[in-house]
């Protein structure tokens, strides 16, 4: 089975490379903007590909003719999306339309990633059937991308996820768990929001949800987050406790005190019953994830 990944230099993309390059049933083609930033080059091919370039996208995908396309490429900086709405639409919406059109043509299964930010955070945790109401442009762009798929004729799966974290190489953006771990280790003073609730997701778990989707040929919308819902403050406190760092420098602040450009939902989190039952999704607990990260950081094997 041939699988093509977009955005393979990103956190989820790298995890998919590491899992699928050693899968004998899969021939893997990784693609991303620019050079391949993953140092392991065995077990897959790499093609530099910008998903917003429709002609190039068509050319590469039609030539490769994969059975499965996993779209991990996105504009993921929520505040930048608020500032650069047009750019956000081009990457997060228009390119998904290109991918769905190509997938229809070659009968490929398109797997796409969405977010808890499609919800307003008034009634979390959410099931797949709850009504979206995004507060930010990023959230709106991801909701529009879901609509593109709902209206398309291709075989598609949307996996909705929340705060993805993990260890990877040369990422263009950090993730909160590694950032907090490093800051706590240094003893930095940290102001952490205590009124936003999330279910943080180990990147490996999300990669597994992608793989389960195509191996089991499951289509439609699935929640694929971590299983533990906590405030951002609790998350950082649990990181401190797990790694035995002091919490003396940890201060609670409210969302209202932090003037972030994009409005964030207060309480999200997902009900995972459908993905557990239908996909066989089995995410790690938050502490199990911290253990995995610690081992990867120590061994330098991701
Ligand atoms: N991270 C989270 O907390 C989170 C939460 C909810 C949903 N999601 C969704 O999960 C998916 C994967 O996220 P992630 O954490 O792996 O994001 P990420 O680390 O930011 O990876 C995204 C990758 O896409 C690449 N990219 C950007 N524009 C591109 C383009 N036009 N063509 C090809 N590649 C392009 C980026 O390249 P560069 O590295 O060169 O910039 C980056 O490597 C995304 O759809 C995201 O919206 C993420």
CATH overall fold name: Rossmann fold
In CATH terms, the superfamily is: NAD(P)-binding Rossmann-like Domain
Helix content: 25-40%
CATH C-level category: Alpha Beta
Q: Please state the CA-atom Rg, rounded to the nearest Å.
A: 19 Å
Given helix and strand content, the structural type is alpha/beta
Protein architecture, described:
- With 302 residues, the protein is of the alpha/beta class.
- The chain has one domain: 3-Layer(aba) Sandwich (Rossmann fold).
- The protein has ten helices and 13 strands.
- The strands form four sheets. A seven-stranded parallel β-sheet has the order 3-2-1-4-5-6-11, with helices on both faces. The chain has a two-stranded parallel ribbon with strand order 7-10. A two-stranded parallel sheet has the order 8-13.
- Strand 1, helix 1 and strand 2 form a beta-alpha-beta unit.
- Helix 1 (11-20) packs across helix 7.
- The protein is globular, with a radius of gyration of 19 Å.
- The two termini are 24 Å apart.
- It binds NADP nicotinamide-adenine-dinucleotide phosphate.
- The site of NADP nicotinamide-adenine-dinucleotide phosphate has 27 residues, from helix 1 and strand 5.
